[in-house]
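Q: What would this complex look like in 3D?
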Amino acid sequence: MKRSFGLAAVAVLCGCLVSASAQEESFLNNRIMVDVLYKRNLGNFSSVWSNALGAYVGYGIAFPEHNLLVVRTGVVSNSLRDGVSYEGASSTLIPVHIGGRYYFANATWMPYVSFMNGLNLVFENTNLEGDQKSRTLVKYAWEVGVGLTVNLSRVIALDARANYQSYFYQTDAMMTGFEYTLGLAWIFPV
Amino acid sequence: MNQTHATARAAGGLALALLLVLTSFVASGQTVSSVVFKHSGRSVLSSPAQISDGRRHVSTALTLAGRSSSNVVLALPPGEEDYVPWEAQKHFWVGAGEIAILEFIPWAMARWIRHWEDPADNWAKVSSSTWWRNISMGWEYDGDNFVTNNFSHPYHGALFFNAGRANGYDFWESTAWSLTGSALWEYFGETFRPAFNDWIYTGVGGANLGEMIYRLSTLVTDNRASGSERVWSEIFGTLINPVRGFTRLVSGEMGRNFENPAWRTPEDFLITFDAGTRVMDKNGDKEFRDKELEGLFAFDLYYGNAFKAREPFSSFSLGMGIASNEPHLTRLISSGHLLGWDLERNKHRLAVNLDFNYHNLIKDFRQGIDSTYRGYLFGEASIHPHLLSRFRIGEQTSIVTSLGFSLAMMAATPNDYYIDVEGRLYDFGPGIGSNLFVALRGEKWDYVALRYRGGWLWTQTEPSDSKHHIHVLGLLLQYPLTSFFVFGVDAGVYWRESSYENFPDVYRDHPFVRVFFKTAVIDL
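A: Here is my prediction, written as structure tokens for the whole assembly.
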């Protein structure tokens, strides 16, 4: 049974790849994107929360000839710096972002610059002042970056990106940092 | 960023404009194939744009004043029909170079030319350590005053925008140019932390103002004109849009005879000027005992037809008010078409505009923990989705309505308990709002117009957690004395409710009345 499922899945995938590659169309098409991320925090915020791990899921809408409108959400969890220990402390973000990419080329290798902004839902549980304090914040998010999309086929693409983020949090402790993402995109040929 | 270096930036922009005008004089004589001098004895400065509809071009016919001056007439080569206009192709590196110049001039003036009482105050002394600090610390809200944030920054942004727009990029792409130019300045051009409000006002406000001056400079410059008419059209175009003038200079288009863009002359174009008086209650305490009377001069421009607009800003309005009392620049408003969908052609249209509002009526303020100002101000850069409708009730009379809401990317309203050391006495923040407009409109004038603007603002800067609910309600009556001259009365009230986390809430209302005469200066 398992083997049949596997063969069927491979057949469907191959069919998609063959049919897609048979078309002489743009690589810049609508897509679903899934990314994992690592972020190195900066500034005063990083003195408590050193880095973050998380994942995004997004959808991209292509516009001729270079542009991709992107909406995304996901979950990002900050990690306490080594040596900083607060019992039960946590800081988790749910991003709701919109932005875009400008692709410099429409080929197998597609470098781009990107800009994303939107809102972060920040769920935090801290006892930094000695008592447990849970709260939810809604803060503005701002990010610029560069990336590379490698079209493995007309249907599947690999995506890597490096971003600078300046997320609003507190005036003296903005959530700034460098974020690195790696992901896959499922492309919908027109 | 503080007021002083904004002044330096403005001065830098002015210096660039003057430099460009001077060089345009020189270059106009250098780039054309032949130059013919002739003498003129005319001594009248005739400036209004002469508008002909033969080839739908606007020619600025200016003749220099008296004193046996020489008019330069440029004999241009014949039309080059196969010529591909500069703005029809993208020129990234020229645009990037212009951005670099626009960043460098104000920075260099502050760094090396301006005298600093305390050299430590020199915000232009940037280094890799200040860059890294700015990157690490991220955005903040600055303490600039209202004029700097709501007027100087958008102008600088308009120059950034046109570095893209005049080099072949469309409106949306050029908006990225103004946002990028602003971000580079904020992070790397000064020692201060990058200010998020500056980025919005420069980037978005710059796109708003930038596209308007791009279209107006295109309207003024006539690629088919020659002689002194061409020279003056290029000078006026450069004064309106220095970056586009500079780009035309380096591309050689200042002296080239080629086709004008098809969209150059809008379907409708109206400029009005009015003069009158305004009285407003300054205290806002409902007792109406402290009125301020002042003269008010206003200029309004209407470009294109909102029911037929397709491209961004193919329809827009721009208004400016100058008061006799301080602050003199009291009003600067605009609304430009971004997107639109016809629900019923020429009758119902769903449209999204980019709005910019600047109302500065702070008549005086005191520093302290009590009420710190008298008068009101309101500023915003917002997206304005709305339903625009027109109901014809006569051959040339209709009722026009607009109902929509606003998404303010950045708005400003007074804060009753906070004065920044740099002069800011207002709050920043995003907001949402509602808009209503109903008018009985004739061929040219609104006979009666009712308008309401309501908004909720949430402060993001220090002191945080204040909320403001603002309203402006106005009724305009205009009685045409002739086809181009009206008498008008505009009465209304501005009121707000401000809530503060650690201070008492504040309620203010400021009724106002304006009486004026208005005339149509240019009507296409």
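A: To summarize the key features: Chain B touches chain A through 16 residues (CB under 8 Å). The two ends of chain B are 42 Å apart (CA to CA).
Q: Very helpful, thank you.
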